[in-house]
What does this fold into?
Amino acid sequence: MTLAVILGGIGSIVAFFLSAEGYLPWDAMLKSWAAAEDREAEVTAGDDNWVVGDIAVRSRYDAVSGYALTGDEKGRKLWEYVPPGRSEICDRAEHAGAGVVVVVQDSVGSDNAGQPSSSCTTIIALDAKNGRQLWKEERKSGKDLSDAAALRNLDLDAGGDLAVVTEDRRETENDAQERSVKKDGERGEATLRGLDLRTGTPRWTARLPDRCGPDEIAIGDKRVVAVLSCDAGGRDRREVSELTVAAFDRTTGALKWNVPIDARRPLDPATGVSVEAVDPLVLAIGTSDKNEGVTGLFASFDDNGRPHPTIDFSQGDDGVIDADSLMQTAVSGDRLYALAGYWSKGNHHTVIAFDLKTGKRAWSEEMDDPAAAMAVNNGRVTVLCEWSTQASAITTLIELDARDGDETDERHFRDPVPSPVSAMYEADGLLVTAGRGGGAPFIAWERW
It folds into this structure.
């Protein structure tokens, strides 16, 4: 009896260590394939990745490359677009469209390798299947606007068969509150244009609200959404300069509605606002000393522009949601999922699901280990965790039911996942992680 107890204890210890290292069946994540590693490079505005059909696409300053996700060539580089001469990829559309990715290329290259250039002037659409250039558009600087200013005021996105390009070439001045805002400018200095994604043919030019110019753009299934920087005065008789959010028809570019981001207090135009999702519309409003009461939160809106209750980045004892970092938030259906973290002798994280219509928590689940990345796919919340509060090696996968937060799976990576992870995809029954900078751009993991 005593021997059986001892052997049982030894077996449990061995099983524990085998499980933690990814050596037990039904409990492990094994590397299925990895794309060839790249040399290290500084991450710039041109860095991103997309999955388009059965092709994974990676862009960085020196090339845009496509990799096979399925078939006998999984992980192999199928094509590569290299900017000519010393020119570089300096920006990109955040989303891919139907079989197409859109990047921006400069004309002369950077003074420092891996650093963004100040002449980001050429928009290029590439076929995701073979890397063929479908069309390009040369942007011209205005007579009173430097290339660097043009770069800062360009935004673009892709979705379905549509590409949208925005520019705001208005110069800046101080308003009555001594805040830096855009001058009124002339017609055409602030534009929002819709193009056919595969041909670059113009489809429409939106009529922007008076004295407003686009800061941020995103394409959804139902509409195009833009964060606008709007000056005081004009036909709308706006009392102060502020940020608003507007929705445009995808087909015609017609303005559907334009509302203040905060209905009670004008949002300072210098505040950083990003579009988390379009359908439903969710904005992340960065912290600002000038608008402490209306910043550091998520704001969501219904299809008619009516606001829902906001959600604070700060979540009390659970810590703070780092909305500026990759893979910390996700929107699926009518819920926002987020990682809230705090430091107490190491990093600690809680996964929280919020109901966007009410702003209240639907559920929360504290992680045993620090969470490095999170994604929501097919009704599952997938969390990649580090092995301890004092380490950054990603060794554990946790899956939660998106409906109620119940844990449905826990697995351990035999080989640590390279950090940081910039995206997670499901392809051919495998989990695919994407990185940035150097190393393998894509690695596929098999549930064993």
